[in-house]
Amino acid sequence: MKSKSNITTLDQILDEKYGKQGAPKREQWEQQFESFKLGVLLEEARTKLGMTQEQLADKCGTNKSYISRIENNATDIRLSTLMKIIQEGLGGHLKLSIQL
After folding, report:
1. CA 16 → CA 13, 36, 76, 83, 87, distances in Å?
2. Of 20, 74, 86, 100, which shows the fewest CB atoms inside 10 Å?
3. Which residues of the chain form beta strands (DSSP E)?
């Protein structure tokens, strides 16, 4: 349903294309989008620090291709590995939240 200004919200588009929140297809989209955002956040942090993927990989004990796969949303990542990348590789801290 469009508002009087004929602006369609992202939620309205997602409802139409993937179903309401809680629908399996919508939940899958939401999870993939969160993975995408994580990759973007890591890439932005790395580039802000002036590091290459190889430099980040060396600092946290992984390899360049793994960092690339995370940044390009092509792999699942373990929480312990994510924390190691953020803490040891980037010198940062991970903050999580849960929405119910």
Report:
1. 5, 21, 27, 36, 40
2. 100
3. none
Q: Residue ranges of the domains in the chain?
A: 10-89
Q: What is the model's pLDDT at position 40?
A: 93
Q: Which two tokens stand for residue 30?
A: 């939401």
Q: What angle do CA 25, 3, 20 make, to 5 degrees?
A: 15
Phi, psi angles (nearest 5°) of residue 65:
-65, -35
Q: Kindly indicate whether the domain formed by 10-89 is annotated with CATH number 3.40.50.10420.
A: no
The string of pLDDT tens digits covering residues 7-18 is 999 889 999 998
pTM here? 0.76
CA-CA distance, 11 to 6, in Å (whole number)?
A: 14
